[in-house]
Backbone:
C-alpha cells in the first residue's frame, strides 16, 4: 500500500504534466462537455432547416443567417444595443459617486459599505424585479405618492416601457459597475491628488485631470461587465418591458420557447455570442478579468 | 421555401389531414346546429356512469404504476380541491407542472425529453401533437364518464372518434372591458372598441392574449374576415392593423395573466378569454364581457395522454375523474370557463352561471363564434412572419 | 486633502443606496400588507406568510430547488477546489484559454447559456428533469467556486507548505494536512456563495426544466405573472432574505483570519 503510494508520488514528481493532467481532467471534461460542446451544437443547429410547428429538419442551410439580415432584426439589435448603452451610462452616473464616496470617505466602514453594494446581487433578481414592478405600477408607491401630494391626477405610465427596462437593467447591473470603479479608486495614489492641489488645481480640475484618467481601467471594466449581460437580458424586458420593448435576449427566448424555431433561435444566439465576444475578447486580452466576481471577496 | 416546407410534411396522419380542411364560419354554424348547440339547453340528460369510489382492482393498478402522476396544464386551471381529492381517492400523488400557453407546452414536449401523463392542449393543437407523434391513444373503456360529455364536443374534426382527446373546458375569445372607463363609447360592442377607440381613448391601457392565432384572429374579425382565412392578403392586412395598435398596448398576457391586469385596472380594454374576464369581474365588478358584433373565436381545451406517459392507467383514471359531473362543475366554476359536461351543466352548475352569457353564450351569440382551425401548413409561415414582425 | 465629503457627494451616495435597497423595503412592506393587489395600505398581517407554509406547490418547488442546489454546490465546490489548485500551482500551455473558457458561463448572457444547455440535452437525448438542471447549474457555478477558492489560495502563505515538505511530509500529506485546512474558509465561502446562484437561477433553469422539475424561481415566475395573491411578496421576502443570510455567513467565514 505504502509502496504503491510512494511509487505513485515518485511517478508524479517526475512527470509534472501528468499531475496537471490529473488535476485538470474533471474540469476539462466539464468545460468541454458543458461549455464548448453546447456552443458547437448551437452552431450546428444554426445551419439546420426550420420545419413546420417547431420541427427541426436535419438539412444544412444558410437560410437562418439570410433571415437575420432583415432590417427588422437590425432594429431589434440596435434597440438592445442602445438600451444596454444607456444602462452603462446610468450605472456609471450612479456607480461613480457611490464608489468615490466609499473609497474616499468610507473610513473604517469601507468593507461594510462595499458589502452593502453587492449584497442584493446575491439574492433572487427575479424577486427584486418583481419589487420594481410593484413600485412602478399605476398603483405603486411612486404613482400613488405623486397623486397624494397632488402633483398628478392620473397615474403616469412608468411600467411596461423603455424607462422601466432601463431602470431594471441599471438596478440589476449596478454592482458590476461599482466594484471595479471602487477597486480602481482604492488603488489611486492619493498623493497625486495632493500634489495637484498643491500645484493649485481646483477640485474639478483634479478630478478631470487626475482621478478620471487614473480610474479609466475601472470605468472600462465596469462598462464591459454591465454592457455584456445587459444586451442579452431576458427577464428585465420580459417583466418590465411589456408589449413594446423587445430585446434580443427576450426575442431569442421567444424564438425558442414561443415560436419553437430552434435553428433561427440558434443563429440569433450565436450572433449575440459573437457580439459579446467582440466586446469581451479585446478587454480580456488587455489584461482585464471579470473582476467584479473576484473583488466581491 | 413555403411549398418546400409543406412538401416535407406530406406524411402527416389522417387526423392532421382532417384538420387541414378549412373550417369556415358557415360550416361551423352548420355543424353547431347539427350538434344541437342552438337549442335552449345543451342536449339530453344522461346518468353518471361510474360509482364514486374506485374498486380495489383499479387501486391496485394505480399503485403498480408507481406513486406519482405527472400532469401538464395551463396555470391555475383546476379548482384547488381537485388534485387533493383525486390523490385521496386513488391513493396516489399528483405533480402539476404549469405552462402559460400552447406554444410553450408544445416546445417542452418537442424537446423529446419530457414525458407527461396528462396534458391539456387547446383543440387546434391536437392535430399537431398527433402529427408529431406525441400522444398516446385513449382506451375508451377506462373512461366511462365520457357519457357525460355533450355530443357537440365529441368526435370533432380535430380528433375524429376521440382517439386521443376528450374536452375539459371550452370558451370564447373576445373583449373584456372596464365599464368605469368605457362609457358612452359608440364602439362598444365591436372590435372597433380596441382597434379604433383604443389609440385615442385607451392608449397604454389595452391588453392582448399571447396566443398567436387568437391575436391575429382578433384583427381578422375586426376587418370582417374569417378567423380561419387562408388569404395571405387578409392575413397581412390583419398583421398591419396589429403593428399599428402595438404602441398602444400594455402587454401581451400569456396564460391567465390578463385577469390580474383587469382586476387592478392596469388595462381597461383587452382581447381576452371569457373566463379571465368572468373571474376578474368577480373581484372587480366593473369588468365586463363583450362579444362584438363582428364575432369572436371559440375553442375547447382538451385532455390528452402523452406518448411516453409512464402512468397511463392512472392518467385515464384522472381524466375520467375530471369528467365526473361534480368535479367538472367545480373546476368550471373555479376557472370561469364553461364545462362541456352535459350532466354537470344540467344538474350541478349554478343556474346563475348557466344563464351567464359570458360563460355560456346564448344561441344568438353562438352564431357569432368561429372555432379556430389548425393553421394549414402552407399558410403557417405567414402566421409566423406576422407574429415575429409584431413582437420584434 | 479634504477629509470631509462634499454634501452633494454624500447625498448622491445615500440616494444610490436607497435605489439599491428600496425594492427590498417595498417587498417586505407589501408582504405585511392586508390589501390585495398591492393597492394601498390595508393594515398589518402575517397571513401571507402563514399561507406559504400551507401551500403544497410551494413546498414541492422548495424541495425541487434544494434537490438541485445541494448537489450542485457539492460538486461545483469540489471541482472548483481542484481547478483553483491546478490554476494556481502550475504553469501550462493554454492556461489563458482555459481560464477564458471557465469565464464564459459567467459573462455570457444567461439566455445563450440556457439555449446551449437545452440543445445539448436534446442532442444527446437526455430526458429533461432535475438531473439536467443540476448539470446546467454546475456549469455556471464551477467558474464561480474556482474564482473564489483561487482568491483564497493566493493569500495562503506558501512557506507553511514548504515547511511541511521540509519536515518530511510527502505531497499528498501536505495537501491534506496543510493546504486543505488553510483553504477551508475559502471552500466554505465558495459553497455558500454558489448556493444562492444555483438556488436563484431562473433563466437557465427555465430552458432545461422538465417533468416535475419546477424549482422555486420557476414557481415564483408564474406567481409573479399571475400575481393575484400578495403571497408572492411574502415568498419573495423569504427567498431574498434567507440566501442573504447564507451569503453573510459565507463572507464572514472567508474574512476570518487563518
Residues:
Amino acid at each position: 500500500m505504502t509502496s504503491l503510494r510512494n511509487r505513485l508520488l515518485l511517478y508524479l514528481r517526475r512527470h509534472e504534466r501528468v499531475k496537471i493532467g490529473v488535476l485538470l481532467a474533471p474540469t476539462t471534461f466539464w468545460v468541454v462537455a458543458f461549455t464548448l460542446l453546447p456552443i458547437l451544437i448551437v452552431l450546428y443547429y444554426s445551419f439546420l432547416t426550420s420545419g413546420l410547428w417547431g420541427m427541426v429538419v436535419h438539412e444544412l442551410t444558410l437560410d437562418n443567417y439570410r433571415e437575420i439580415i432583415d432590417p427588422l432584426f437590425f432594429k431589434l439589435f440596435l434597440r438592445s444595443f442602445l438600451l444596454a448603452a444607456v444602462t452603462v451610462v446610468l450605472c456609471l452616473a450612479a456607480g461613480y459617486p457611490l464608489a468615490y464616496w466609499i473609497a474616499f470617505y468610507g473610513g473604517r466602514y469601507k468593507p461594510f459599505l462595499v458589502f452593502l453594494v453587492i449584497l442584493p446581487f446575491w439574492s433572487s433578481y427575479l424577486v427584486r424585479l418583481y419589487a420594481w414592478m410593484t413600485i412602478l405600477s399605476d398603483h405603486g408607491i411612486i404613482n400613488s405618492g405623486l397623486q397624494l401630494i397632488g402633483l398628478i391626477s392620473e397615474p403616469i405610465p412608468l411600467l411596461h416601457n423603455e424607462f422601466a427596462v432601463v431602470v431594471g437593467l441599471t438596478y440589476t447591473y449596478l454592482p458590476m459597475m461599482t466594484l471595479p470603479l471602487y477597486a480602481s479608486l482604492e488603488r489611486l495614489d492619493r498623493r497625486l491628488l495632493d500634489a495637484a492641489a498643491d500645484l493649485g488645481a481646483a477640485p474639478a480640475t483634479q478630478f478631470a485631470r487626475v482621478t478620471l484618467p487614473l480610474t479609466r481601467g475601472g470605468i472600462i471594466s465596469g462598462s464591459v461587465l454591465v454592457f455584456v449581460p445587459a444586451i442579452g437580458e431576458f427577464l428585465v424586458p420580459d417583466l418590465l418591458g411589456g408589449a413594446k420593448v423587445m430585446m434580443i435576449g427576450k426575442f431569442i427566448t421567444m424564438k425558442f420557447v414561443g415560436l419553437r424555431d430552434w435553428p433561427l433561435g440558434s443563429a440569433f444566439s450565436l450572433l449575440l455570442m459573437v457580439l459579446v465576444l467582440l466586446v469581451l475578447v479585446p478587454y480580456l486580452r488587455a489584461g482585464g478579468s471579470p473582476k467584479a466576481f473576484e473583488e466581491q471577496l | 421555401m413555403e411549398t418546400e416546407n409543406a412538401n416535407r410534411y406530406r406524411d402527416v396522419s389522417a387526423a392532421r389531414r382532417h384538420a387541414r380542411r378549412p373550417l369556415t364560419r358557415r360550416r361551423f354554424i352548420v355543424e353547431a346546429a347539427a350538434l344541437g348547440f342552438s337549442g335552449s339547453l345543451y342536449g339530453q340528460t344522461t346518468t353518471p356512469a361510474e360509482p364514486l369510489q374506485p374498486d380495489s382492482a383499479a387501486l391496485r393498478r394505480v399503485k403498480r404504476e408507481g406513486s406519482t402522476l405527472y400532469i401538464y396544464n395551463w396555470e391555475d386551471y383546476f379548482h384547488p380541491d381537485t388534485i387533493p381529492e383525486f390523490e385521496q381517492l386513488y391513493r396516489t400523488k399528483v405533480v402539476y407542472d404549469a405552462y402559460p400557453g400552447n406554444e410553450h407546452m408544445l416546445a417542452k414536449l418537442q424537446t423529446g425529453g419530457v414525458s407527461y401523463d396528462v396534458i391539456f392542449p387547446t383543440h387546434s393543437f391536437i392535430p399537431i401533437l398527433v402529427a408529431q407523434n406525441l400522444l398516446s391513444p385513449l382506451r375508451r373503456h377506462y373512461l366511462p364518464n365520457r357519457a357525460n360529455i355533450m355530443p357537440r364536443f365529441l368526435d370533432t374534426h380535430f380528433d375524429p372518434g376521440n382517439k386521443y382527446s376528450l374536452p375539459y373546458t371550452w370558451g370564447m375569445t373576445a373583449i373584456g372591458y372596464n365599464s368605469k372607463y368605457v362609457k358612452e363609447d359608440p364602439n362598444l360592442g365591436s372590435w372597433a372598441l380596441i382597434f379604433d377607440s383604443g389609440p385615442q381613448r385607451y392608449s397604454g391601457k389595452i391588453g392582448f392574449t399571447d396566443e398567436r392565432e387568437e391575436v391575429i384572429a382578433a384583427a381578422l374579425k375586426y376587418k370582417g374576415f374569417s378567423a380561419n382565412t387562408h388569404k395571405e392578403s387578409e392575413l397581412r392586412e390583419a398583421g398591419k392593423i396589429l403593428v399599428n395598435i402595438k404602441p398602444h398596448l400594455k402587454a401581451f398576457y400569456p396564460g391567465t395573466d390578463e385577469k390580474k391586469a383587469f382586476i387592478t385596472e392596469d388595462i381597461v380594454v383587452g382581447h381576452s378569454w371569457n373566463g379571465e374576464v368572468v373571474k376578474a369581474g368577480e373581484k372587480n365588478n366593473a369588468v365586463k364581457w363583450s362579444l362584438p358584433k363582428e364575432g369572436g373565436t371559440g375553442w375547447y381545451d382538451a385532455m390528452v395522454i402523452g406518448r411516453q406517459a409512464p402512468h397511463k392507467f392512472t392518467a385515464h383514471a384522472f381524466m375520467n375523474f375530471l369528467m365526473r359531473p361534480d368535479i367538472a362543475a367545480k373546476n368550471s366554476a373555479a376557472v370561469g370557463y364553461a364545462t362541456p359536461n352535459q350532466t354537470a351543466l344540467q344538474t350541478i352548475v349554478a343556474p346563475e352561471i348557466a344563464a351567464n352569457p359570458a360563460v355560456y353564450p346564448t344561441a344568438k351569440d353562438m352564431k357569432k363564434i368561429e372555432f379556430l382551425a389548425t393553421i394549414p401548413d402552407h399558410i403557417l409561415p405567414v402566421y409566423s412572419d406576422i407574429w415575429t414582425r409584431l413582437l420584434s | 486633502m479634504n477629509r470631509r465629503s462634499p454634501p452633494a457627494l454624500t447625498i448622491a451616495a445615500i440616494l444610490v443606496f436607497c435605489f439599491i435597497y428600496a425594492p427590498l423595503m417595498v417587498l417586505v412592506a407589501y408582504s405585511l400588507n392586508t390589501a390585495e393587489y398591492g393597492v394601498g395600505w390595508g393594515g398589518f398581517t402575517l397571513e401571507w406568510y402563514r399561507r406559504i407554509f400551507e401551500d403544497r406547490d410551494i413546498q414541492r418547488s422548495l424541495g425541487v430547488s434544494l434537490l438541485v442546489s445541494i448537489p450542485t454546490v457539492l460538486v461545483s465546490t469540489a471541482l472548483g477546489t481542484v481547478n483553483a489548485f491546478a490554476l494556481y500551482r502550475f504553469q501550462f500551455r493554454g492556461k489563458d484559454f482555459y481560464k477564458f473558457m471557465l469565464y464564459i458561463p459567467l459573462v455570457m448572457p444567461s439566455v445563450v447559456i440556457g439555449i446551449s444547455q437545452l440543445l445539448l440535452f436534446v442532442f444527446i437525448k437526455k430526458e429533461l428533469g432535475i438531473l439536467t438542471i443540476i448539470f446546467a447549474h454546475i456549469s455556471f457555478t464551477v467558474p464561480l467556486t474556482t474564482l473564489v477558492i483561487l482568491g483564497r489560495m493566493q493569500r495562503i502563505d506558501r512557506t507553511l507548505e514548504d515547511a511541511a515538505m521540509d519536515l518530511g511530509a510527502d505531497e499528498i500529506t501536505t495537501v491534506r494536512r496543510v493546504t486543505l485546512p488553510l483553504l477551508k474558509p475559502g471552500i466554505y465561502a465558495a459553497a455558500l456563495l454558489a448556493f444562492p446562484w444555483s438556488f436563484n437561477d431562473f433563466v437557465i433553469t427555465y430552458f432545461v426544466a422538465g417533468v416535475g422539475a419546477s424549482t422555486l424561481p420557476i414557481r415564483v415566475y408564474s406567481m409573479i405573472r399571475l400575481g393575484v395573491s400578495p403571497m408572492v411578496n411574502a415568498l419573495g421576502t423569504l427567498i431574498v432574505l434567507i440566501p442573504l443570510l447564507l451569503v453573510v455567513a459565507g463572507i464572514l467565514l472567508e474574512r476570518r483570519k487563518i
